[in-house]
Amino acid sequence: MVADTEIADVRAIKRELAKARRRGWARFMRRLAAHGSFKIGFALFLMIVMLALCANFVAPYDPNKSDYRSILMPPSLDHWFGTDGFGRDIFSRVIHGTRVSLGIGLAVVVATGVLGIFFGLLAGYVRWLDNLLMRIMDGLMAFPGVLLAIALAAALGPSALNAVIALTITFTPRTARVVRSSVLVVRELPYVEAALAVGAGHGRIIFRYILANSLSPLIVQLTFVFAVSILAEAILSFLGVGPPPPAPSLGNIIAEGRNYLQDAGWIALFPGLAIAAAVLGLNLMGDGLRDVTDPRMRSEREAG
Amino acid sequence: MIYFLLRRLASALPVLFVVSLVSFVIIAIVPGDVTAEIAGSDSTEIQRAEIRERLGLDRPLHEQALRWYGRLLQGDLGQSFLLNRPVTEAVLERLPVTLSLAGLALVLAIVLGVLLGILAATKHGTWLDQGSMSLALFGLSIPDFWFALVLISVFAVGLGWFPSGGYVPASENFWGWAKSMTLPALALAITQMGVIARMTRSAMLEVMSQDYIRTAKAKGMVRRTVIFKHALRNALIPIITVIGVMTGVLLGGAVVIESVFSLPGVGRLIIGAIQRRDYPIIQGGLLITAAVFVFVNIMVDLAYGWLDPRVRHGR
Questions:
Q1: What pTM, to 2 d.p., does this model score?
Q2: B60 FRET partner, CA 20 to 30 A, in A158, A233, A294, B95?
Q3: pLDDT confidence tier of residue B168, bands split at 50, 70 and 90
């Protein structure tokens, strides 16, 4: 029968396509693995994530337990990063603080990713919504830097959840823009037209063809959003509108250390280095991902 | 050019509308009773009612919005609770400090960043290239307010070269002003310096491979002239485009840096208002800073349109 051979052909083609997809994926991973700064960034970030995940086992002391016999001790073998004004161990506080910062950063990345995809697709695919949505995004982006996040977090009240909400509102517009601009390019490509012609529905076209091919700039963008959220969360905590003390968020530790700059500089020094290390790792990974996916896409990240 | 200007101004209107709407909403998203937050938990119901009336919170939301816009069009952003004076006045009075801090940081970031970028591009592939790019990446990755604290401990507490905070008006004592602004501007500039250094390097590398540079080299032009006159001029164009965005980042960053160095700018005013729940100041500060940013972006676009005729006529 003719139909049987046709089905067999279709199956063979599908197998070939799957194989090609796997090959493309493998090539992508190989290129990433060969990218020097991506490797360094990945190793650095992985190490920090592991430390944060195992905080309860790695931290030698309870991060919130005061010890009045060892107040403001400089770094030593007992206290690697020294102690603060309550005799709390800075090393333990930094490790637990990294966990708080990474957790908030990750939550912001997930929320920003979901909302960015949603609004980006909506604006890029539904023509009449495009103008309205993008004007709103422009308006949100008109607030300079982290100022909007600071004001939102201040109005909502200091908590980890509110920090995530404030940062998500601040970083979603730019992410939505990235998604939208790649959707606008992809939707004009011949294979989308071909899919339309053979009668694929909107859902299939959006998810299978448009979104799948708009992902790489989004992933690059989200890596940088992760880095920027860690920095911004530290600012919120430092200003007292992030997760409230005694939670050892890295920004909180720096804020406490600020009062001891003269006598105990180590209190503020180490949490800052922890932030810098995490952000550096993410930036290196982002650079690598960008180089591998599209060497010409340089502009979006600079804005932060 | 006039058409371009008008079109650019018109496109700023919806942006300003969203900005003003968000600033209005800020007070509506405060959970629970705003007046209790403002007056303190031991306040009497009469005190709260008075605040409610002063803010217009006793009216329905759409009426509040109408009132907000009615006043806004007259340049009235309400009264500050604690300062007991109009918000507009209080914010505008502090704007010059913030603007000069952001401006100084912008100049520092551009000068240092461009120099670093040129160094990296001209010594492409050497340790100088790697060194400058590591420095740029480091600048991008450190929290600026933390860098400010490091600068204070080294140059103010340790060496005593600069004051650790406080502000001296330039009109009183120029050197004192310069000294009080150096560390804050440096701390604020560090991130953007990294951004500009990386941009300059890649733009320079791209320009240096162009035919006209090869021609200039081939006809025996001095290397310095080729780099600074021919290559840099074209490499700088992409940097002009990001100055607008960068100003925004710097204005936002100034909020934190001002409170680290106790500079009496808009940022410190807003942070103080946050601690004391002075919502009109938060709203007004947010709105005016965003408006300044929108204005700067228009100026940058105009400059760009003037430099590059394609921008003016395109779209």
A1: 0.85
A2: A158
A3: confident
